[in-house]
Amino acid sequence: MKKLTAIAALPLLAAPAFAQVTGDAAAGESVFSQCQSCHVVENEAGEIVAGRNSRTGPNLYGVALRQAGSLDTYDRYSDSMVEAGEQGMVWDEANFVPYVQDPTGHLREVLDSRRARGAMSYRLRDEQEAYDVYAYLVSIGPELTEEQQGFLMDASEMPAGGDS
After folding, report:
1. Inter-residue contact 93 to 19 (CB < 8 Å)
2. How many CB atoms lie within 10 A of CB 57?
3. May I ask which residue range the UniProt record assigns to the signal sequence (predicted)?
4. Which of 86, 76, 117, 74 is nearest to 99 (CA)?
5. Which of 30, 43, 59, 141 places its Cα 20 to 30 Å from the Cα of 70?
6. How far apart are CA 84 and CA 116, in angstroms?
7. How far apart are CA 65 and CA 152, in angstroms?
8. What architecture (CATH level 2) is domain 2-141?
9. pLDDT above 50: residue 7
10. How do the domains of the chain map onto residue ranges?
């Protein structure tokens, strides 16, 4: 009986995570075509979920709430990206959206350093498209853990680049 109750509660645990994503995942799928020349979304089984087999940028599978600059299968992060991650920056919507609109500018703000630089040269100029791409990546990524869901809810109260 306890297993059945726990299984029945799983959808309720996932709901708060998606409540914090404000973009349109279907629109984000279309916009992601602009990202696929550098990024792939490849799951743990090695299946390409989105994009092509491009490896210029990091794999975006599971990017939601991942610590910035921390994917161990990618070794071309800028020093600033790694530092931002070490200081607590995670890929929540509040960091993802401004970063993809102005990578270097966002890192400079997060690190409070004019010397900070991002390695990504492409920008999504339209803010709504940035929200949509984030929603799309969340929708095709792995299910968020209970801890991640709690963080997502807490992150809605923190400023971009949070001090966590």
Report:
1. no
2. 19
3. 1-19
4. 117
5. 30
6. 9
7. 8
8. Orthogonal Bundle (1.10)
9. no
10. 2-141
